[in-house]
Design brief:
Layout: H1 2-8, H2 24-57, H3 61-89, H4 92-113, H5 124-159, H6 164-196, H7 201-218, H8 227-231, H9 238-250, H10 253-256, H11 259-281, H12 297-300, H13 312-336, H14 342-364, H15 375-395, H16 398-410, H17 417-421, H18 423-468, H19 470-474
Length: 476
């Protein structure tokens, strides 16, 4: 491992050159805005594909979820390599390459939709072929994400060095774009599918191409590599070398102790944003959404209000409010984080997650379903729901605090900032998979009560991780 890492270290190399001063603010806005648009496009593609798979290709939720989530597999696998590449060749080429990959994927989807067969219910070999094409396209979109996050975060780390308040703001803005991109991308996908059916992928293609134009016009390179940076290791050993950097990083106790906390919080958010929608949507006889062959959620998980019976409009309002409170909270935390020690900020945020889990557990016991809710339970909800919104704002401080901490640690390895910040993609993608897949098992076993137990376990893991790395966090 040491030899692999040494290939990436060039002690005699000059330090990376700073960002060009021609348009530094324009470059920052362009980089963050473009990442925001990329996330919108990826989530819109997710929505269109999910709806199309459900209506025309397969009725299996398992198959559909595997197809759309292979996105995270390529993001997890390639983020280390693209992070290392951006350290060696500069950030700008990979920032631009990201939406090009997304455009290629949506272009494939769009061309497939021109085939006459895609307008009908597909079966047999045609179904298998379509599933393989869509899975390949989602893997290519994952390449786009794997490229965007390490290069984008490396760029923001480059341009915010030496100014902690500015770093907090740009890193929080980046995290806000991730959440807001998901929140906005869902209705964008719904609108595109409503207007053009599966041909809505042409709209996604246009969004990606717009991002290429914005990045080309606004972003100035933040890191000018030396000849030594680009000479080693040879291309055929790049993947092994990049993974060697990550092994080196994770052997640093300052990073290793902190990794479980961020992974747990990402998994918790994935479970709350994804599985709650599934649980609320389950069919019930009381809501008159039960088909003859389906099981009544009220009988499967009795005495749980937050399992089944909710209409899609109510679910959209609840999840939209959750996302909005996350964004509002992140903005408010930008004024607090520069004046607060990071262990305290993270513990307060985790306390917010703990309070949310407790309040949701209380809510879940208020009745059997929304249709038979008592007046007393309605009055209790008027108290509980604002409290949940308040604690979402409190909990939203964890992500910007964690991202700022990661950027600060990268200052100790200026030649490997992209690789360090590539951990963001690993922890985000890993958390998404962990939260959705493992959380789904808990939900299948015990309904919303299972999701509460899963949330409490993740929160406890995060508290332990922050405690274990508190001395290091306090030093920044």
């Amino acid at each position: 491992m040491a030899s692999t890492v040494e290939q990436l270290k060039q002690p005699d190399s000059p330090a990376p050159q700073p960002v060009s001063q021609r348009h530094p603010l324009r470059s920052i806005v362009g980089a963050i805005g473009s990442y925001f648009i990329i996330r919108i496009a990826a989530r819109a593609s997710y929505g269109i594909l999910s709806t199309y798979l459900a209506q025309k290709v397969t009725g299996s939720a398992t198959i559909a979820s595997v197809i759309v989530t292979v996105f995270f597999i390529s993001e997890l696998g390639l983020a280390p390599i693209f992070g290392n590449l951006s350290d060696r060749y500069g950030r700008r080429p990979f920032l631009i390459f990201s939406p090009i990959c997304g455009a290629a994927a949506s272009g494939i989807f769009a061309l497939v939709t021109l085939l006459p067969v895609t307008g009908t219910q597909v079966t047999g070999v045609v179904r298998v072929a379509l599933l393989l094409v869509f899975a390949g396209g989602r893997l290519l979109e994952g390449v786009s994400a794997a490229c965007a996050a390490p290069a984008g975060l490396g760029f923001l780390t480059d341009v915010s060095g030496g100014n902690d308040e500015r770093r907090v703001r740009v890193m929080t803005a980046f995290e806000v774009t991730t959440v807001l991109g998901v929140v906005i991308g869902i209705p964008v996908g719904n609108v595109l599918y409503g207007l053009a059916d599966v041909h809505g992928f042409f709209g996604v293609l246009a969004i990606y191409m717009l991002t290429v134009v914005i990045l080309s016009a606004t972003v100035v390179e933040s890191r000018v590599p030396s000849a030594a940076d680009t000479s080693q290791p040879p291309p055929e050993r790049l993947g092994r070398a990049a993974l060697g950097v990550y092994r080196m990083l994770l052997h640093r106790s300052r990073l290793l102790a902190f990794v479980p906390a961020w992974l747990a919080v990402n998994a918790l958010l994935a479970a709350l944003l994804g599985l709650i929608q599934f649980l609320l949507s389950l069919p019930t006889a009381a809501a008159k959404t039960l088909e003859p062959t389906q099981q009544d959620a009220d009988l499967r998980f009795p005495h749980q209000l937050l399992v089944g019976g909710f209409d899609q409009g109510t679910i959209a309002v609840l999840l939209g409010t959750f996302g909005a409170m996350l964004i509002v909270g992140m903005v408010l935390w930008t004024f607090v984080l520069p004046r607060m020690r990071r262990p305290m900020a993270m513990r307060i945020a985790l306390g917010g997650f703990l309070a949310i889990a407790v309040l949701l557990a209380i809510t879940n016991r208020l009745g059997e379903n929304p249709q038979t809710l008592s007046p007393h339970a309605h009055h209790a909800l008027w108290i509980i729901m604002p409290l949940i919104a308040l604690f979402v704002i409190v909990a939203s401080g964890f992500a910007p605090a964690a991202l700022t901490h990661l950027a600060t640690l990268s200052e100790e390895m200026p030649g490997e900032r992209g690789a360090v910040m590539g951990l963001y993609s690993l922890l985000l993608g890993g958390g998404q998979l962990l939260g959705t897949w493992v959380g789904g098992i808990f939900a299948d076993i015990a309904g919303f009560n299972g999701l509460i137990v899963f949330s409490l376990l993740l929160t406890a893991l995060a508290f332990w991780s922050v405690h274990a790395s508190a001395d290091d966090l306090a030093g920044h």
